[in-house]
Structures are given as structure tokens and as C-alpha cells.
Specification:
InterPro entries: ABA4-like
Pfam families: ABA4-like (PF14108)
Largest sheet: none
Radius of gyration: 17 Å
Protein name: DUF4281 domain-containing protein
Shape: globular
Number of strands: 0
Order of helices and strands: HHHHHH
Number of helices: 6
Distance between the termini: 40 Å
Keywords: Membrane, Transmembrane, Transmembrane helix
Helix content: over 70%
Organism: Arcticibacterium luteifluviistationis
């Protein structure tokens, strides 16, 4: 697979997880399919690419902005990074749905937050924490 096809596959495949979270959040298999299906497959592809194609990764590759920038100079490295984003943002989305149900947050409320998690990861998470805090008057998990 080329980096472009990996990128395209990831973008299309991750939508399955997001659709499950939005359309069928209460289905008993949604969390399992998202966590152990979609995210796991993205993680396996990610791990394979990291092992196979990351190149000259060294322990100090994260010590400076210039070092991190140097990691993302190939299409393969960008595809790897993109899979990382897709998997972790979906993981956070699954967490938001799970926790929202636990604290009794209305479906329409967390459904409005999920697109922000999908597009802007941490911003969506901050939105969720603030809404949950208002609902429960607590930052506790």
C-alpha cells in the first residue's frame, strides 16, 4: 500500500467508528466494535508501518520542534502520524460517549461534542469536560 492509499483507507475506515458512536451509541456492540475493531485495526496498521518504515527514529527525535519536523518529511511518516491522530481521536470519542452515558448526559449534547472531537481532538475533549463538570459539578472521572 502506498502512503496515499493508507491515508485514504484510514480516513474512510475511521468513519465507521464515528458513525457507530453517533447513530448507535447505545447498541451493546458499539464500544466493542469501535475499540476492538476500528481502533485496533488502525493501531495494527500503524504499528506495522512504524516497525517497517519509520526510518531513522532515535530517542531524541522528540526533543525539539526541528527534530519532530524532521520525522515528518516523508509521505509514509505523515500517513503514520495521521493514523495516530485518527485512532486516538476516535478513542477519545468512544470515551466521551461512554462517560456521557455514565453521568446521564443527554445524547443530543454529546452528539454535538463528537464532531469537535473528530475534527479538533483536544478541543472536543475540553468541551466534554466542561459540559460534564456543569452537569456533575465535579472534575472527577
Amino acid at each position: 500500500m502506498t502512503p496515499s492509499s493508507i491515508f485514504s483507507f484510514g480516513n474512510a475506515f475511521v468513519l465507521l467508528g464515528w458513525l457507530l458512536l453517533l447513530i448507535l451509541p447505545h447498541w451493546k456492540y458499539t464500544q466493542t466494535l469501535v475499540l476492538n475493531g476500528v481502533i485496533l485495526l488502525l493501531a495494527v496498521i500503524y504499528a506495522y508501518l512504524v516497525i517497517k518504515d519509520l526510518g531513522s527514529f532515535e530517542m531524541d527525535s522528540f526533543n525539539s520542534l526541528a527534530s519532530v519536523k524532521a520525522l515528518f518529511t516523508t509521505d509514509t511518516a505523515i500517513a503514520i502520524g495521521w493514523l495516530h491522530y485518527l485512532a486516538f481521536d476516535l478513542f477519545v470519542g468512544a470515551y466521551v460517549v461512554r462517560k456521557s452515558k455514565e453521568v446521564g448526559l443527554a445524547r443530543w449534547v454529546y452528539s454535538l461534542i463528537l464532531p469537535f472531537v473528530f475534527m479538533f481532538g483536544p478541543v472536543g475533549y475540553v468541551m466534554f469536560v466542561l459540559v460534564k463538570m456543569v452537569k456533575t459539578k465535579s472534575l472527577a472521572e
